[in-house]
Amino acid sequence: MASVEQLTLPAWLRHQAQHRPHALALRHKRLGAWHASSWQALATTVERLAAGLTERNFAAGDGLLLVSQPREQALLLSLAAQWSGGVAIPLDPQLDDEVLRAAVLHLKPRFVFAEDDRQVDRLLALSQHVIDANLRDLPAHPHPSVIDYRTLASRRNDAFAPVAHEHGDAFGFLRVDEDGRLVEQRFTHAALVHEARHLALAEKLHAGDEAFAARGFAAAAQARYLIAPWIVSGFRLNFPESLETRDNDRRELAPTLVAGTRETYARVAQLVDDRLPGRRSWRRKLIGRALRKQAGFPERTFTWWFVARPLREVIGFSRTHAALVVGAALDDKTAALFDALRVDVHPWPDAGNWQRVTSASADAPQPRHPDDASPAQPAY
Description:
Distance between the termini: 51 Å
EC number: 6.2.1.26
Domain AMP-dependent synthetase/ligase: 13-128
Number of strands: 15
CATH topology of the domain at 11-204 and 353-364: Rossmann fold
Strand content: 15-25%
Pfam families: AMP-binding
Protein name: 2-succinylbenzoate--CoA ligase
Largest sheet: 7 strands, mixed
CATH class of the domain at 11-204 and 353-364: Alpha Beta
Strand order of the largest sheet: 2-1-11-10-12-13-14
GO molecular function, one term: o-succinylbenzoate-CoA ligase activity
């Protein structure tokens, strides 16, 4: 049972670091190799990043906008912002310039995080402080308003206790609705912790599980059904090298927890179809009979061992015991295929309290903090 102090994500992060310091918490792939962090190392890094943000005048209630795909740096910065009492706001890097401008105008973040040079250039004109991921370890960006991620963490050794409040916002999300307007929803620490504990109980999640973060980082379901349950349950979270390599990386890991959308599972189902031989082959016929539930017990057993089980290994579902589809349910064809592969996909809602905030064609944003803003400069 959570104590009063464990009603925020940073409090749960400290809890994991104190009780399971050497257990693996996070793995990310870079240049073809997996890199791992323990709960203790993760909490230490987040604490130092939070202190670094605070030293740069990031305060409780401030926003940190993250324009990034799923990657380690974006996650750590999100947790650091929450540690400091702020809110992390992941944003889809594929949004066009006009929508990005409207989002920054509405959010007025203290900092923005950019995953690559293109995003740095887009964001420099929209905010006073840009944190550059610098994934290729290049020399620091020459623009004075750019902070290299490698230099953000505080060098001080004194402890920096979390200042997050259970009723404070932990994550915020924006998207464009069908009418072309920006809509927003936010989740408090208490709400995320409550949902995470409910999910862990319903799906029997535990510290030995392996989760795979393949969805877009800016998806609200990522925070609700992956990040918060990871911190509360203490399992391992794995980030692929990129969205392009996610299928190979998932096959390599064989995670026990997979969360995706209807489209995610349809794409994986297409991978299965691509792996099967021609329509007259015995393997495809066996799967077809299994899909139509026409096979008897001996045939079902044979199909499992010689067709379905190898296919589960190919798509990285060989160990999966918790397969979640967030939002719309699977279409009949995809649902039948995963049923034939003996993958029980459970639906979880993705409905949220989306509120319209502004038109997607807003004026150029002004600095959130004019007192400490440097003169406007052109993007590098």
